[in-house]
Design brief:
310 residues; 6-stranded parallel beta sheet
């Protein structure tokens, strides 16, 4: 039986995720949006492209939530983007209401789906989905560190002109200003990054990764990144559907790991067919652990603002 993938939100990230999943023939897809005709139109367009890729996947679009409840994997991309004049708290509260309403609907699923959350503020939205649905913590995951890490690779490659397969790194913590590039574990062509660049250059590359999304927003003017976020979601889905159990940095519910409790935060996880198979422990420098603590504190402050509304 084919895998069923439900994507909530047919905007740029959702539609591009559907396109990449279609090209890879990952399963049948339902693309849901409150703008039902837009979702239907994109689904038709996508369906008419699949033959060029040798794909047998079927894509439907609309606003029928019963189709989402049939899904083995649910991807949530719905929500508002931050607009001029909107504070971070404005975005937090507006998207919280949207994600809470979605979570109340998907909690009715009988299929034990794995849910991948993309909506921002990412860690708080993943926490909301987890708490409202009551799903096991291994089945609710936030897409964050995968994207941030691959952005880091982009800047390392631009500086050192090294092929992607020769780079190894990980970005943990929040999907935001307090993300933590783990420079001590960053390898390039088999050697530590600090053997290739100066400490100041390494921190500069880390800052470029940290600000990578903001740079794209400033250039696009009216939108935000979607190709790389969608590709990151598909990377996670592949790990689940193929039971790869590779280690990826994702936002997960911490219950004592790294000293954190009752928050979603980016940590290294083993991702397989049941979702989060385990949370791995990697060696951090004192400075990296302090930065991760600060990131956890920032996330907790945001969660505390919506906790009594769940």
């Amino acid at each position: 039986m084919k895998t069923k993938i439900g994507i909530i939100g047919a905007g740029n990230v959702g539609a591009t995720t559907a396109h990449l999943a279609l090209v890879k023939d990952m399963g049948d897809i339902y693309l849901l949006d409150i703008a039902a005709d837009m979702a239907k139109g994109k689904a038709i367009d996508l369906n008419q492209s699949k033959f060029l890729f040798g794909s047998d996947a079927r894509i439907e679009g609309g606003n029928d939530f019963s189709k989402i409840l049939e899904s083995d994997i649910i991807v949530i991309t719905a929500g508002l983007a931050r607009k001029p004049g909107m504070t971070r708290d404005d975005l937090l509260f507006k998207n919280f209401k949207i994600i809470r309403d979605i979570s109340l609907k998907i909690k009715e699923s009988k299929k034990n789906p794995v849910v991948i959350v993309v909506s921002n503020p990412l860690d708080v939205m993943a926490y909301t989905v987890f708490k409202v649905t009551g799903f096991p913590r291994n089945r609710v995951i936030g897409m964050a560190g995968v994207l941030d890490t691959y952005r880091f690779y982009h800047f390392i490659q631009n500086r050192l002109e090294v092929p992607y397969r020769y780079m190894e790194s990980m970005i943990l913590g929040s999907h935001g200003d307090t993300m933590v590039p783990v420079l001590s574990q960053t390898m390039v062509a088999g050697k530590p990054l600090d053997a290739k660049v100066t400490p100041s250059e390494a921190h500069e590359l880390a800052d470029m990764a940290r600000n990578g999304g903001a740079e794209i927003v400033s250039l696009l003017k009216t939108g935000s990144a979607y190709y790389a976020p969608a590709a990151s979601v598909v990377r996670m889905m592949e790990s689940i559907l193929l039971n790869r159990k590779g280690i990826l940095p994702c936002s997960v519910y911490a219950d004592g790991e790294y000293g954190y409790r009752d928050i979603f935060i980016g940590l290294p996880i083993t991702l397989g067919e049941s979702g989060v198979d385990k949370i791995s422990t990697i060696k951090l420098t004192e400075g990296e652990k302090n930065s991760l603590d600060a990131s956890a504190k920032s996330i907790k402050e945001q969660i505390d603002k919506i906790k009594d509304k769940i």
